[in-house]
Write a structure and sequence with these properties.
Strand content: 15-25%
Shape: globular
Structural class: alpha+beta
Oligomer: single chain
Order of helices and strands: HEEEEEEEHHH
Strand order of the largest sheet: 2-1-6-7
Length: 185
């Protein structure tokens, strides 16, 4: 039996953002780990579009995708753990992947019953995408290893500045404060 290596969810998202410019994430927002606006918390097929032209940063980490997204013009800091993600694709080209094992049962049943995606050829990664993903991963690792070390300099001191070690793969992603809104009357 021949097995082919499948790209990971973060690799698919990075590839689609870097190479195609945008990605639509299909999310089961009913899971508690998904941090989305409360009005979408009952949506097991929430679709979020990320675009590399967005002014706010998109953090594609090892455990989740994080970014401040706008819903009806209102910003909300979203955290999408990969366990809640069941699809990622470019809506313009159809390139991407579905993970049926991560789909909620009713979504999976509708997907297989309709077979509309199968009739259109389904979602697929373009030819050579896996090699491109591996190259992006290697370039990212090399860039992290080649980053200059920063030094903290406070005022004038005769002591040499302390060297700050670069982050490792074991370090958790930086914790960002969630934006909060308050009613002003």
């Amino acid at each position: 039996m021949v097995t082919t290596e499948q790209p990971t969810k973060p690799d698919v998202i990075r590839y689609l953002l870097e190479e195609e410019g945008r990605v639509m994430l299909c999310v089961d927002a009913t899971q508690e780990q998904a941090e989305v606006p409360r009005r979408f918390a009952n949506d097991n097929s929430l679709r979020l579009v990320l675009n590399r032209q967005m002014p706010q940063p998109i953090h594609v980490g090892e455990d989740a995708v994080e970014s401040e997204l706008r819903f009806g013009g209102i910003p909300h800091y979203c955290i999408i753990p990969y366990g809640t993600l069941w699809g990622a694709f470019n809506p313009d080209t159809g390139h991407g992947m579905l993970w049926p094992d991560s789909m909620p049962n009713d979504v999976r049943q509708n997907y297989w019953l309709s077979q509309s995606l199968q009739q259109e050829g389904g979602f697929e990664m373009p030819e050579g995408a896996l090699e491109q993903v591996k190259k992006l991963r290697m370039d990212e690792e090399q860039a992290q290893n080649n980053r200059p070390q920063l030094q903290i300099v406070e005022g004038h001191s005769s002591e040499p500045p302390a060297v700050v070690e670069p982050p490792t793969d074991e370090d958790p992603p930086p914790q960002r404060p969630k934006p909060s809104l308050r009613l002003v009357k």
